[in-house]
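#dry-run=false #mode=assembly
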Amino acid sequence: MGSPLRIVNGRVFDPAHGVNGAVQDVCVRDGKIVDDVPPDAKRIDVTGMVVMPGGVDIHCHIAGPKVNLGRKFQPEDHRTDVQLRTKLTRSGTGGSVPSTFATGYRYAAMGYTTAMEAAVPPLGARHTLEELHDTPVIDKGFFVLVGNNLLLYRLLQEGRREEFRQALAWWLAVSKAYAPKLVNPGADELWKEERNSNITGLDDKIGSFELTPRRVIAAFIETANELGLPHPVHIHCNNLGHTGNVATTLETMRLAEGRRAHFAHVQFHSYGPALGKSQHHPTSGAQEIAAFVNAHPNITADVGAVMFGRSTIMTADAPLAYLLHQIGGGKWVNADTENESGCGIVPFTYQDRVYTNALQWAIGLELFLLSEDPWRMVFSTDHPNGGSFTSYPRLIRLLMDREYRKQQMEQVNQKALDRSGLRDQQREYTLSEIAIITRAGPARLLGLTAKGHLGPGADADITIYEEDPDKEKMFSAPRYVIKDGELIIEDHEFRADHEGRILHVAPAYDRQIEQVIEPFFEDFYTIRFANYAVDDRYVPHHQIIPTGATPS
Amino acid sequence: MSENVKIVQDATCTFCGCVCDDMGLTVDLDEHKITKAENACILGKAWFKGHGLEERPFALIDGREASTAEGVEAAAQILAQARFPLIYGLSDTTCEAQRVAVAIADMIGGTIDTTTSVCHGPSGIAFQGVGESTASLGELKNRADMIVFWGGNPAEAHPRLFSRYTVTPKGMFTPNGRKDRTIVLVDVRRTASAPAADIFIRVKPRSDFEVLWALRALVKGRKVDASIEQRTGVSLAVLQDLVARMKTCRYGAFLFGMGLTMNRGRHFNSGALLALATDLNQFTHWVAKPVRGHGNVTGADNVVSWQTGFPFGVNFSRGYPRFNPGEFTTVDLLVRGEADAVLVVASDPASNFPKAAIEQLHRIPVISLDPKATLTSQLAKVAFTTATYGINVAGTVYRMDDVAITLRPAFESPYPSDEQVLSAIRDRVRALLGGNRVPAAGPAAAAAS
Amino acid sequence: MPEMMTLIGGRTSKQGTALCVSKLGAEYREITSTVEMNVEDMARLGLKNGSRVTLRTAAGEAVLTCKGRETKDLPPGILFLAYGPLASQLMAGDTAGSGMPISKNLDVEVEPVPDPAGP
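#status=ok
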């Protein structure tokens, strides 16, 4: 945990406590932020520097079955971007899907101390936790895929809502997940069973089930809220990437009816109808999405911004990946998981001259710039789908630096810009707003009460930046990074290795529900029920985040 | 048989890549052996029966009995002093042990390679080239109405692949099991697997690629000349019939074996099959899976991939992982005489590598970890006896479809696990080197100068 | 006169069960030193079940025991041998840059070992 520490003379940005650049000390003891430490505590003088809580990534793809497929799929993406071994730290490779050690060290070196893997089928939970264990420094957890789960579908179809609730709690608990995740609900049955077709709207029939995406999504939002989860439900809407999908997105947001729901990477869901002759040239729907989110405090979102260059499309939305494979014609991975999920992986490059890519880039920026509540429209690139997490500093600069943004806008497809509202935006994010969208906001949306702020009792995850007019440079390489009170990076170099914690929930459930689940396993799974739950050996260093209400 | 008997339900068999987790083991705790393995196939039964405790020295150094600790010291000295050390094997041990093995390779700047390089390594290379549409085995059980086995003999090498996962089980959309499926077997000889198939297609040796490419052409609606029969032994009519079935089934699956990879064409063969599966997805749902051999070879692929970015044949000498099959793969490193020390974990290259590779093993210091005596342990300078994974050792293994399963060991062994021995070696090497070995002049330094 | 045939290496369930007992034992040795051959080929070469035969490749040679298989199971000109120390003797070390040596469809020269008790 490190010895007591006093960080003095820094400009502190702690938006959760209304601290906006005031020069004040931050004290650390036993891994936590405290009011004061003894006078003989170690001091770090950070005069002129910016002190923030460690960054929190609410949505990224960094570990588990699909990520590892994405890694071994692309040797060409690793060989030019390597992570050198040091006396202390392990080596690795980078590119858009870095190895586990490179992932942990690179997040830390950028000042991020927490990240959430956003899509894991329950059957992949054990694998994911093994990888997260080899992802150093940061705290981490994962969202578990439940939106195409066939037993949950059966319970829902048969109107067995109480059992549905118990089964959802069971799945969260036995997989040691952080939150439930829906991805293109209903699509897997059409993809796997009906010749690779896809859901087109909320009222489509889900294969052989008497269900629609509308009914499924509404049930999950309602039930996840009843369970009192710290992050109730994380939704990847239907029709991702399709022209005109803004209508589906808004309809889905309305299904929340005032309940809490988080919408992932909304940039990919903010495409207006095509204008003119071309079917392939959508317009920006950022205005409508931003307006809806602004007006509905129960709705939260991360942007999923697109950054030009190499990425990897890596998603549980299998039909989408196949569509991109057909467009690009390159190599393609599909991976079906029994009773639980689909998955697709395609290498992808966003090009500034391409209309659609430029429009995606513009929409991402628009959503940030139109957001009136930074606490509810937070930072992400859906790493590596919209771009690597290592591009975050450049994205921050695009938000903070209007002149830089203008220069970049000149480089991109102008027709696309014409059909976005980006030219009208003069806004520049402040340091405090950046602190909100990259740490305080995501921590709050995740229900991580000890993260994203610097008040007493918070985890001592602290990042200290040297101010620089070039915000990309500033946010690329903090001078100091402290994790759980330990000085991990000092003068831009690793001073210690560190094993972060697995963050997960453990909602209570009625053991009777196993009588319902076990027979389904006997019939339709190929792993024994008794061997399915992930035991504590896979989370040697963990923290259970409490759930508010337990199912009765 | 003694009275001191324990029953272990839902135990896992790690003999082959099927990793069946429904074993009911009866364990005689006094005799330290498994007397009954319910649900096990012929191979599984032999696996459980054959891994009782044997009286063996904890370690042998130059053939002399030694303690594990003495073995660790000797092994650490070898690895710390070697200029081009290689760590090989890993397919019959836990992921926990595999993780430590990669850590050692990284620390000393050595090479890590697994039995994948002489198994489905070519399929791994093909995967990197064309991708793969794949599925967990339960999808085949629940959905597959057409399954094509190619270049493999599951009846002998993976007996329960048919009965538990693919051919006969009843699933959600295959309620009648075998009756709901069309089974095809393609091979150069009529194997014991042939009776399970509705259609057996015999191809001439060395013509799998040509048959696969002809199928791709037919799927895409191109013309294939009737002379294909002369070349491959398979008539155009048979190929056309197969294509018609493949395009109209609901959920199709290829399961392919080393008849493709250990053969002329290697990764081109695997790549042709993976590409055919991809092509078929324009018409209906198709997946393709390599059928993996050893109990945790899939875990080895996963661990090496997540730690380095590459699945096998990874070298750390420049301070970061480099992948190059043919350069950093074990057979090549041995045949070329480059490796100057080898740590072999749970594998027996001395009994199945090409002659020239085995000759190099006789010339250099070899460290082996194995529950049993093997030709490799016999030639090793330091040979550890370790406990058997799944029978004495807990931990994680990955089924051939990447599903991770936790082991339920049956009885305790006095011998240490691979993980324990490797961890001790790692700690000792670290002490000898004073931390990770950092190359004096990496590319960064070279670029700066 | 030696004759050219095609050798396929592979696994068998007997080999799998034997290696669980011991890879240094008699059973494993026997299984991995028995080559399966088409019965018509054997008749032509004057071989019987249990006859000894030398297989030769560019990499090396091995002396194995013959076992006959019907034509429907193993076509003429094809041999099958379970992987093991003797199969290794016949495998070339070249992997063509793939890491994988070729162990199936090897060109082998087949020559009966004269029976010391024979004519």
